[in-house]
Write a structure and sequence with these properties.
- By secondary structure, the protein is mainly α.
- It contains eleven helices and four strands.
- Helix 2 crosses helix 6.
C-alpha cells in the first residue's frame, strides 16, 4: 500500500467509524423514551431527582453504577426494599445503621415528608428503567458485612446436585430464595447475627417454635410450615415489637409475593427455610 492508498484508507475508515457512531447515537436517542419510561416522569419524580442532587446523594451512592462507591448502588433499591422501608429509613437512618455497630453512618438529611415521597418516586422510576442489566453486580451493603451468598448450606441442600432430583422441594426452594423478585437475598442473610433490611433467617426453625408458643403471637399459623408461608404471603400478620423491620403496623417486607409466587413456589421456599434449625 503506497502513501496515497494509506491516506485514503485512513480517511475512509474515519468516515465509516464516524457514520457508525452517529447512527448508534441516533438509535440510542430514539430508544431513550421507551427504555426510560419517560411517560412516567411525574412532578414527584422530578422533585425526587432535585432532592437527590440537592443533597449530593451521589457523593456516596451510585445509580446505574455511576457515582461514589462508599455506599450501596441504589438502581434497584425501590424494588429490593419497598416504599415503607425507604420512608422509615430516610426519616431516621440511625435506627437502621450506625457508625459504632456497622462502621458506617448515613447522615440525617432532615428531609420533609414531601421530599421523602419525591425521592422514593424518583428511585422507583429509576428502578424501572431498562438498564439492560447494568450494573452487573450492584453493591449490597449489609448490617454486618455478610450476605446470603456466603452462608452455610443446609444439610438437606448440601447433596451433590447430580444426585438430587429437580423435584426436591428444598432445592427448588433455594432457587426461589435467590431468584424471586425482589430476591430474598436482597434483604435476608442466612448467616447468624448478620441482620440486613430484614432479620437473618439462620435458625428460623428454632425461633419459630418460640414465637408460636409466645402469648404475643398475633398471626394464625400453627406450625413451622404455615408460619413461614404466612410470613411470605402476609408479612404484617405478626410484627416483632421494637424491631426495626416495620413501621406504623406495616412490615417492610414486600406484600407482593402472594400474587407473584405460585403456591408451589411458596411451599418450596418454606421447605428450604425450614432446614435452618
Amino acid at each position: 500500500m503506497n502513501k496515497r492508498q494509506a491516506r485514503y484508507f485512513a480517511i475512509g475508515s474515519t468516515l465509516l467509524a464516524t457514520l457508525i457512531f452517529l447512527g448508534l447515537t441516533v438509535d440510542s436517542h430514539r430508544q431513550f423514551p421507551k427504555l426510560t419510561n419517560a411517560q412516567n416522569i411525574t412532578p414527584a419524580v422530578t422533585l425526587g431527582k432535585n432532592v437527590w442532587h440537592k443533597n449530593n446523594c451521589i457523593n456516596c451512592h451510585t445509580l446505574f453504577g455511576e457515582g461514589a462507591y462508599y455506599a450501596p448502588d441504589l438502581t434497584k433499591i425501590a424494588q429490593q426494599r419497598g416504599a415503607p422501608y425507604l420512608r422509615a429509613f430516610l426519616k431516621d437512618p440511625s435506627k437502621f445503621y450506625d457508625e459504632q455497630r456497622h462502621r458506617r453512618l448515613m447522615p440525617q438529611q432532615n428531609l420533609s415528608d414531601a421530599d421523602i415521597d419525591g425521592l422514593i418516586a424518583f428511585l422507583d422510576w429509576v428502578s424501572k428503567v431498562d438498564n439492560q442489566g447494568w450494573p452487573p453486580r450492584p453493591i449490597m451493603v449489609t448490617g454486618l458485612g455478610a450476605t446470603a451468598g456466603n452462608a452455610p448450606v443446609p444439610a438437606a441442600a448440601a447433596t451433590s446436585t447430580a444426585a438430587v432430583s429437580d423435584k426436591d422441594p428444598v432445592i427448588l426452594g433455594e432457587r426461589v430464595f435467590r431468584t424471586a423478585a425482589p430476591a430474598c437475598t436482597a434483604c435476608h442473610s442466612l448467616t447468624a447475627g448478620a441482620d440486613m433490611a430484614g432479620p437473618s433467617l439462620a435458625g428460623i426453625a428454632t425461633r419459630t417454635q418460640q414465637t408460636l408458643a409466645s402469648p404475643g403471637y398475633k398471626g394464625s399459623a400453627t406450625d413451622l410450615e404455615t408460619f413461614i408461608r404466612e410470613s411470605i404471603t402476609r408479612p404484617s400478620a405478626h410484627l416483632v415489637a421494637g424491631a426495626m423491620y416495620s413501621a406504623n403496623g406495616v412490615s417492610f417486607m414486600p406484600n407482593t409475593y402472594e400474587k407473584d409466587l405460585t403456591p408451589e413456589q411458596v411451599g418450596h421456599l418454606a421447605a428450604y427455610l425450614a432446614t435452618f434449625k
